[in-house]
Amino acid sequence: NAGVTQTPKFQVLKTGQSMTLQCAQDMNHNSMYWYRQDPGMGLRLIYYSASEGTTDKGEVPNGYNVSRLNKREFSLRLESAAPSQTSVYFCASSVPPDRVEPQHFGDGTRLSIL
Amino acid sequence: AQRVTQPEKLLSVFKGAPVELKCNYSYSGSPELFWYVQYSRQRLQLLLRHISRESIKGFTADLNKGETSFHLKKPFAQEEDSAMYYCALSPRAGGYQKVTFGIGTKLQVIP
Question: pLDDT tens across B24-36, in order?
Answer without folding.
Answer: 999 888 888 999 9
